[in-house]
């Protein structure tokens, strides 16, 4: 069961890597717009994160940190809202404000940092 949990964790990290990687390509490529693949990375990270929130495969006596899980979920929802609204604006031909674009990258890095640093 622990091996399956590690596989789900790996998939979760791949989701964030896809999201952050697509953001970084846009940020340092000069376009500074959202790509559809960001939504896929967000979806992968979200579904795998919810699977990790379930109390299966934990060592004996360990309990999930529900405050950490809730914090990561709130950050993920905010990222989703920003990316979704940004993509909608792009479809209408409008530009994304730089603050929203950079906030997505910062929040994505923050979410990964919460996962690694917060015990």
From TrEMBL:
Transmembrane segments: 6-25, 37-57, 69-88, 100-118
Domain of life: Bacteria
Swiss-Prot/TrEMBL keywords: Membrane, Transmembrane, Transmembrane helix
Protein name: Fe-S protein
């Amino acid at each position: 069961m622990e091996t399956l949990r590690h596989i789900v964790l790996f998939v979760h990290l791949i989701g964030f890597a896809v999201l952050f990687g697509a953001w970084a390509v846009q940020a340092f490529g000069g376009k500074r717009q959202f790509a559809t693949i960001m939504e896929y990375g967000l979806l992968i990270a979200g579904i795998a994160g919810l699977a990790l929130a379930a109390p299966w495969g934990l060592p004996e006596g360990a309990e999930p940190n529900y405050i950490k899980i809730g914090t990561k979920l709130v950050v993920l929802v905010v990222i989703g809202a920003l990316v979704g609204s940004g993509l909608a604006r792009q479809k209408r031909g409008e530009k994304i404000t730089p603050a929203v674009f950079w906030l997505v990258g910062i929040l994505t890095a923050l979410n990964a940092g919460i996962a690694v640093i917060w015990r």
